[in-house]
Amino acid sequence: MLQHFFNPSSVAVVGASQNPAKIGYEILNNTFRYNYGGAVYPINPRAQEILGHKVYPDLVSVPSEIDLAIIAVPAAAVVDVIKQCGEKGVDSVVVISAGFKETGPEGARLEEELAMQARELGIRVVGPNCLGIIDTASSLNASFAAGMPLTGHIGFFSQSGALCVAILDWALGENVGFSRFVSLGNKMDISETEIMLSMAEDDNTRVILGYLESVEDGPRFMEAARKVSETKPIIIIKSGTTTAGAKAASSHTGALAGSDHAYRAAFKQSGIIRAESMHSLFAYAMAFAAQPLPKGPGLAIITNSGGPGILAADACDRSSLHLTPIRKETADRLRAFLPPTASVYNPIDIIGDATQERYEKTIEVVLSDDVLHAVLILLTPTVAVSAETVARSIVRLAKNANKPIITAFMGEKSIRGARKILQDHAIPSYDYPEDAISALDAMLSYRRWREKPPMQYRQYEVDTRKVRQVFASVIKQRRHDLIESEAREILRAYGFRLPESRIARTTKEAVRAATEIGYPVVLKIASPDVLHKSDMGGVRVGLEDEAMVEEAFFEITSNIQLRQPEAHILGVMVQEMILQGREVIVGITRDMQFGPMIMFGLGGIYVEVLKDVAFRIAPLSVESADAMIREIQSFPLLRGVRGEAPADIEGIRDALLRLSQMAVDFPEVIEADVNPLLVCPEGQGAVAVDARITIQE
Ligand code: COA
Question: If you count Cβ atoms within 10 Å of the first and of the last residue's Cβ in the chain, which end, N or C, has fewer?
């Protein structure tokens, strides 16, 4: 896949220049400088020779075939060069030139023209507005980056050229090797999805690293990531987490759904490891590229000082790793050579006068214990120990270890040499224990993702015909918001349990309905124009008798007439009052990139003030529905506190899955809230008390 980009037999640099200050010179120089084995053709109409190589006036004049063209001419000339590529039969092109979509409408128009030309000629394009690409296996540096990464196993793609440069510089400083570097630029044609898939096929790439500001085609990206992450870890840092757009939404679900919720959900559902900062991106990259995944959560910490050991233990506590108690046999083996003041329990504190020999013996014992799945070695410099000799011991022992070994040697001057030894031998070395723990934690989550059983999806028998009918009638009336009775019909068609209710147009009808339903009841205004019924004084709950119903009927209708005089009132809905249930909210919203999203949260202040909600992209698997229920911080309240019976989690899961099916079946549903969904005690299901649905033609 994209073979000509990463392993071309020949490359042309269009816009190659004799002037060392120009980008075209830099790119040409990079293609020569790092021993790329293929042919390189500089293209420039005005030069005869650059860097000792013959120059061709245009692509067509080159006597041999060209696999890849790197274009570094001003934006206005790029379309013409693409036409030349078509003539010459070049099928892969990297456009370095800026001056396209990123500059405004004129640039966007130029980019569209370029895209159209490329498409017509069957030419694939990386860029425009990019730094270029690098493939260390073929020694190709088709970029204007200053430097060439070492050969290694990390494939990196980035939507920011500047970040590519920064990462390259870091990698060179830290001795971290890369397989590929791709600057995506404006992603006019080739996007992150294809690059990810091509790196998945590349034998030299073990870990895929990415910096993204946006995703081009959410569902396709997720599908690809899901497939790729089955075999290779994908670690992404995503910036630009804006909530703009969400503000205009009218439902709770819409208002709470910033684009970051969508990315967060999409990453979780497709096995992508999200790095929250550049710092953790590097930290994860080091660990994933160099070490095996832990077989389980059992962590052993070896330290020569108490404080860092405790910091590491605290960090472990916040992670999914487990500070495994040391078994008696292992503890006895440690005691045999450790001083009596040492602690053989986890963290294993071999104390301040620990020597290289003590470190080595301890590491050996820990590595041989199968219940300890990963080892974190901490070292603070002391006069008793040479950090470099400990580093060498670790390197030696790591050769036969079948578990991850991670280190945090703390300090700077006296451990610099040791760190270099570790880095040179692919032992991740961090400045602080917390970084080491978070990298191991990410590795453990990834392992669990890879080993999880296949996702299960449920398909419910639903009445889509009924839903279509209701939607058609709403659209015919030029409305977008469904009134409550319509929303109820939709929910009923999707198998939700609803409270019994009747529409009453008079006080008398309301009293009759209440008697039939049974007290206590709830009264709500029935009007297509009143969206926020409670805020408008359109809801009364806990009505125990005839007199209360009469009074509530009068009050509700007068409130609406007063506060929203233009509202068309159909009557008042008399509804069964569900007495035992915890309020939750489930909803649908749509994300521009990823499509339908499902939300879950506890009702009332939990959703409105604390915004304690979870999102996932539809269709939801049973596992995703379960995970989102457990993800909210207030989940313990559903499990039951202070002797309360647990809420019916199965009922919530069922509601989420039904809603997910609706979101997929009916793209016209742009927003929906079931609020509240009253969750009864375990085994008794959940009742959709109120719902708002907004559709678009
Ligand atoms: N075919 C071949 N060569 C051509 C050409 C064509 N159609 N049109 C122009 N050239 C030659 C020029 O003659 C010049 O060579 P010279 O130095 O021998 O005269 C060379 O290509 C470059 O053209 P020039 O007009 O001098 O442009 P430049 O070098 O100042 O800038 C870019 C060109 C592409 C570097 C510049 O337009 C640009 O986009 N810079 C920003 C790049 C960037 O930031 N990318 C994103 C990074 S993340």
Answer: C
Cα 378 versus chain centre, distance? 31
Instruction: From the CA of 160, give the closest atom in ligand 1.
Output: 48
Compute the distance from residue 95 Cα to the ligand 1 centre, in Å.
Answer: 11
Gap from CA of 22 to ligand 1 centroid (Å): 7
Q: If you measure from the C-alpha of residue 73 to the centroid of ligand 1, how many angstroms do you get, rounded to a whole number?
A: 3
Q: What is the mean pLDDT of each run of 10 residues along the chain (697 residues)?
A: 94 96 96 95 94 95 97 97 97 97 93 97 97 97 94 94 88 88 95 97 96 90 96 90 47 58 93 91 91 96 94 95 95 95 94 94 96 96 91 95 95 91 92 94 96 93 96 93 90 94 93 94 89 88 94 94 91 89 92 92 75 93 95 87 85 97 96 92 91 91
Q: How far apart are CA 474 and CA 490, in angstroms?
A: 12
Q: Which atom of ligand 1 is nearest to the CA of 99?
A: 39
Pocket perturbation via mutation, ligand 1, pick of 30, 73, 211 by most ligand atoms within 8 A of CB: 73
Question: Which 8-state DSSP code applies to residue 293?
Answer: P
Pairing of strands 273-275, 322-323: unpaired
Q: In ligand 1, which atom is closest to the CA atom of 97?
A: 39
1, 194 contact by CB (below 8 A): yes
Rounded Cα distance between 395 and 429, Å, is 12
Residue 575 has phi, psi (to 5 degrees) of: -135, 145
Give residue 107 CA to ligand 1 midpoint distance, Å.
16
Which residue type occupies 687?
V
- Which domains occur in the chain, in start order? 3-205 (3.40.50.720), 291-450 (3.40.50.261), 464-576 (3.30.1490.20), 582-695 (3.30.470.20)
Collect all residues with Cβ–Cβ distance below 8 Å to 228 and sequence separation of at least 6. 196, 197, 199, 200, 208, 234
Buried b (16+ CB within 10 A) or exposed e, 435-459: bbbbbbbbbbebbebeeeeeeeeee
Q: Sign of the C-alpha dihedral, residues 649, 652, 656, 657?
A: positive
Spatial distance between the Cα atoms of 118 and 397, rounded to a whole number of angstroms: 54
Q: Are 255 and 249 in contact (CB under 8 A)?
A: yes
Atom of ligand 1 nearest to the CA of 72: 34
The Cβ of residue 244 has, within 10 Å, a number of other Cβ atoms equal to 8
Ligand 1 pocket check: which of 19, 22, 81, 82 to mutate, most ligand atoms within 8 Å of Cβ?
22
Considering only CA atoms, give the Rg of the chain.
Answer: 32
Q: Which of 13, 44, 62, 83 to mutate to test the pocket of ligand 1 (most atoms within 8 A of CB)?
A: 44
* Ordered alpha helix ranges (H), 318-426: 328-335, 356-367, 387-398, 416-424
Query: Residues lining ligand 1, CB < 6 A?
Result: 14-15, 17-19, 22-24, 43-47, 72-74, 77, 80-81, 96-99, 129-131, 161, 183
CA–CA separation, 124 vs 74, rounded Å?
19
